[in-house]
Amino acid sequence: MNSMKIGFIGLGLIGGSVAKAIRKYYPDYEIVAFDKNRETLALAVQENIIDTACSSIDDNFKGCGYLFLCAPVSCNTAYLSQLKGLLDADCILTDVGSVKTSIHEEITALDMEENFIGGHPMAGSEKSGFSNSKAHLIENAYYILTPSEIASKEKVERYRSFVSSLKAIPVILDYREHDCITGTISHLPHIIAATLVNYVRDNDTKDELMKALAAGGFKDITRIASSSPVMWQQICLKNGSNISRILSGYIQALEKAKAAIDSENENELYSLFETSRDYRDSMPNSSAGPIKKQFALYCDIIDEAGGIATIATILASNNINIKNIGIVHNREFEEGVLRIEFYDEASSVKAAGLLQKYRYIVYET
Predict the structure, then answer these.
(1) Under CATH, to which class is 179-281 assigned?
(2) CA-CA distance, 194 to 40, in Å (whole number)?
(3) What is the C-alpha separation between 321 and 343, in angstroms, rounded?
């Protein structure tokens, strides 16, 4: 295995996870990193993830085979001019941002297109920062590559192969198409979730009955409203024209649903729910998309002292980690009294089999 130097500008959740995956699969590679947070760099050195911690963007980054921009989107473009003189002709410069047009435009303006292939690993977590990064975070996640218009086919193939070797799933897209797709399947749902939660908040009763009774379907479809406000503010600013156009189309869809309700159009209403059910059921049961799947099951238990503790003990004694556990009070949309959430699909599947063995009635999501 030939050694290679790889650079990171920013070492948060995504940058740290990519760096850890590289260290796992290419232990001999040299990894250098810059981050504004010195504690992050110290931790990365201590965990043997990086070899060199840089206090600035300097000559340590010369000779890199790959250079990952993993700072916030608004910062990445500012670092480009500092990096321009440090890139070899065969270096692949990439980023991990979820909006691509703005950085591609900056790359073109700085005449750095020969080196640049945008990147977007469709992975994440409710938690942020290097301390929460994991090598397996990008495993089996779609990893979008958006080559510049003059990046060589050899560079694109090299990067595609490298992403595959880190156990992610590479998908090559035009950067403009990427921003339209993620605007629809990722950015729009976050806006819907945020506005829906705020609508309930603004229209709740004085004693907050809506908040108290909200569970089940409402909490599932609004879970992503708990995401970082700063990140989503930046995404809306950077992908604003696409999101605005997509929102206009979605508002028309809502108006059409409202019209069907106002006119009591039975066929239209049935079609609305039938087509959405069929299309959703046809989607692959995978967590490789931008909005991460929850791994949860529901279980019937008798209301008796120690009921939850018994289940927790069964799972713990079989080395199954529980992410969350609790009674479902609003079961309008779910079967099962107890909801148990896990960190991964393997744990959820193993837990379901185990609880069924102990004669519990289990409903898998």
Answers:
(1) mainly alpha
(2) 31
(3) 7
The residue assigned the tokens 């995401």 is 227
Quickly name the fold that domain 295-364 has: Alpha-Beta Plaits (3.30.70)
Residue 330 — very low, low, confident or very high, per pLDDT cuts 50/70/90?
very low
Q: How far is CA 230 from CA 6, 170, 236, in A?
A: 28, 27, 10
> What average pLDDT is seen over the chain?
88
By C-alpha distance, which of 99, 116, 83, 62 is closest to 10? 83
Coil, strand, or helix at residue 165? helix
Computed on alpha carbons and rounded to an integer, the radius of gyration of the chain in Å comes to 23
Least confident of 16-20, 226-230, 245-249, 356-360: 226-230
Q: How far is CA 103 from CA 62, 117, 118, 176, 344, in A?
A: 21, 10, 8, 11, 33
Please list, residue by residue across 42-78, b when 16 or more beta carbons sit within 10 angstroms of its beta carbon and e when fewer do. ebbeeeebbbebbeeeeebbeebbbbbbbbebeebbe
Q: Which amino acid is at 154?
A: E
The domain limits of the chain are 5-173, 179-281, 295-364
Q: How many residues does the chain have?
A: 365
Q: How far apart are the first and last CA of the chain?
A: 43
pLDDT of residue 333: 46
**What pLDDT does 331 receive?**
45
Q: Return the structure tokens found at 363.
A: 């409903």
Over range 275-288, report the average pLDDT: 75
pLDDT of residue 308: 86
Burial pattern 260-269, b for ≥16 Cβ within 10 A else e, equals beeeeeeeee
Domain 5-173 falls under CATH 1.10.760.10: no
- pTM, entire model: 0.77
